[in-house]
Amino acid sequence: MRTLKLNGTLSRISGSRREVRSDKLAFGYLFWLFLVFCLIGYMFETLIAFLEFGSFQSKAGLIYGPFSQIYGIGALLSVLLYRFVRNSAPVAQFLFYSATGSIFEISASIIQENILGSYSWDYSSHMLSIGTGRTDLLYSMVWGLFAMLIVYKVYPMICRIYDSLDKKTSYIATFLFCALISADMLVTSLAVARYSERHFGKLPSTSIEAHLDRVFPDEVMERIFPTMLFLDR
């Protein structure tokens, strides 16, 4: 019965069967999908944290603005991987996206652990954890559902809105927001890398590193990224 309900839900999501055509993979469309899901991911994670702990926590992935870039990247992967399952049944697409979403989340966790010596999520206490706590079955299903909604509902809507705008306006807005989010990601990357180095006892060796230590000391980083914990070495 549950399988039938799931199949019915997925069929309704994919009912329009709008194609993610090659001409709809232009930078403008993909950038706004990325930005929108950075915001949606932040709101989703904040809501989950509130329901779990009863209080609001910072779940941002960037220093400036309410964005979670892992969800933005996941949204891009959903669209770019669609061509591999475009002719598959809705349930098969859901399972494919659930699996690839889990692989992506596990990979992101491994990369963070090996580069920064830290982790930002741990599901090892969950009954359905996967990959030594790097993801779990529930989040795997969330990735699958999000991907289906992105491919069949959200992305086509973003394309329609983008196409309805004046070309000059859309180009300027895309360039401006792309520059801002790129700067945010660069500053965040530098600050987080320096945060990790400080934790493991590395003194600043350049004026840039010294500046990062002054502007983004540990107390600031702990407030922005409260779930980022370091591994014992």
Q: Can you characterise this structure?
A:
By secondary structure, the protein is mostly helical. It has one domain (2-166). The chain has helices spanning 2-13, 27-53, 69-80, 90-116, 137-164, 167-199, 207-215, 218-224; strands at residues 118-119, 129-130, 135-136, 229-230. The strands form two sheets. A two-stranded antiparallel ribbon has the order 1-4. The protein has a two-stranded antiparallel ribbon with strand order 2-3. A hairpin with a 4-residue loop joins strand 2 (129-130) and strand 3 (135-136). The mean pLDDT is 90.
Topology record:
Elements: H1 2-13, H2 27-53, H3 69-80, H4 90-116, E1 118-119, E2 129-130, E3 135-136, H5 137-164, H6 167-199, H7 207-215, H8 218-224, E4 229-230
Antiparallel strand pairs: 1-4, 2-3
- The helix fraction, in percent, is 55-70%
Q: Kindly state the number of beta strands.
A: 4
Average pLDDT value?
90
H/E series: HHHHEEEHHHHE
Instruction: Name the shape in a single word.
Output: globular
Whole-number tally of structural domains = 1
What's the total helix number?
A: 8
State the distance separating the first and last CA atoms. 49 Å
